[in-house]
Every structure is written in structure tokens, then in C-alpha cells.
Amino acid sequence: MAIGRNLSAVERRGAYEMLLAPSEHGVLPYGAITGVARHYMCHRATISRLCSRARLSVDNGAPVADIAARIQGNSGAKRKRTADEIEQAIKAVPHDDRQTLRCLDVHSGIMNTTIFRHMK
């Protein structure tokens, strides 16, 4: 299982519909949440939260279950440099000073981990 993965809107809708299919009178059979979690390669708690939020929204009178992600908009760390800026900074360093990552780090002013991640 890929723990820590965020589901897209389409995947969330599909997961909710997969949960609705085997349910009888609003009760899920044993193992349904785990099965859906395996199908979408996420943690079962993710699917359980999705199901709980959907039930809560319907119980509160919403015509359609609310399964939208709460992570929206500008989330996550902001990029400090683009890939082109990193390449230009590396090319600006003389060849003799590019022999090791540590030297490249010092002379370019870009962190070692950023250079390594860019090389991937």
C-alpha cells in the first residue's frame, strides 16, 4: 500500500461509488473499506474518512454526498528555483569546480539535495 497518497477527485468519486455498491441499507459489509483501499492503493483510514464525511454531509441534508478533498489550491512547499534556473546556475560554475556535488553545492549556491533531486 502506498501510504500518504492523496486521491484525485475522480478517484474519490470512484471509491465512494465502490463503497455504495455492496452496502445494504447504508451498512457496509465487513472488509469493504479495506478492499476499496487496496484497489486505490491508499490507506484504509483514507477511505474510512471519505465514507464518514460523505455520510455526515448526507445526514446534514445535502442532496449529494460531499467527497471533495480538503486539500485545495496552493498547498505544499513553493518552488524556489525552476529547473532552468538550476541548470543555468550549474553551467555557470567552472568545470573544475563541478567535480563533486559538494564543490558544486558551494560554488553554485544551490543545496546539495536540490542538485541531486534535479539530476534524477
Automatic annotation (TrEMBL):
Pfam families: DUF7769. This is Aste57867_10761 protein. Residues 7-61 form the DUF7769 domain. It comes from Aphanomyces stellatus. InterPro entries: DUF7769. It comes from the Eukaryota. The lineage of its organism: Eukaryota, Sar, Stramenopiles, Oomycota, Saprolegniomycetes. The gene is Aste57867_10761.
